[in-house]
Specification:
single chain; mainly alpha; 79% helix; nuclear estrogen receptor binding; histone H2AT120 kinase activity; VPRBP/DCAF1; nucleus
Length: 167
């Protein structure tokens, strides 16, 4: 038979356990956020060095950036954002990591220009085209699509031609 003191200590234990779990989850989320920014910064540094390297190096870096953005997009959607809010994720939720990562990418003009001009428009390497298009699709929530597609002459035509020629 339990006494009222036993029930109280069991309740207190449950509350403390729940609070500890919440604190650990919050700490892990913060650590993951810092890691995501550090990972992207590291990948952009690797990209700087690999620009004159092999296609395999570029494909690997673009793929890793895509995977990072895809992971953070999944985390962003877990927060159940308004599906009709078409603002940049960083404006819709200033604290979200996805918005911060997209801002980091777009602040690097050399990278975004290389992504569109060199890897999509001018490269004939299928693997590089594919990795670049995957990344472009992943970063679209942060882009002003009208501006990008108007400024990059021939981009839409290139994408349509690939879609028509796909097996």
């Amino acid at each position: 038979m339990f006494s009222p003191g036993d029930q109280l200590s069991a309740s207190a234990s449950a509350v403390l356990s729940s609070a500890l779990t919440a604190a650990v989850s919050a700490a892990m989320a913060i650590a993951t956020a810092v890691d995501a920014k550090a990972d992207l910064a590291k990948l952009l540094d690797e990209w700087e060095e690999a620009q004159q390297g092999t296609t395999d190096q570029l494909v690997s870096i673009l793929t890793k950036i895509s995977e990072l953005i895809e992971r953070e997009t999944g985390e962003y959607h877990k927060a159940d954002p308004d599906p009709f809010d078409d603002r940049h994720p960083g404006r819709a939720d200033p604290d979200c990591m996805l918005g911060q990562l997209l801002k980091m990418l777009f602040m690097n003009d050399d990278f975004t220009n290389a992504l569109l001009d060199s890897y999509i428009m001018n490269s004939r390497e299928l693997r590089l085209n594919t990795a670049a298009c995957r990344l472009l699709q992943n970063i679209m929530p942060g882009l002003d699509a009208a501006v990008v597609f108007e400024e990059k002459e021939g981009l839409v035509e290139k994408l349509f031609s690939w879609a028509r020629e796909a097996e």
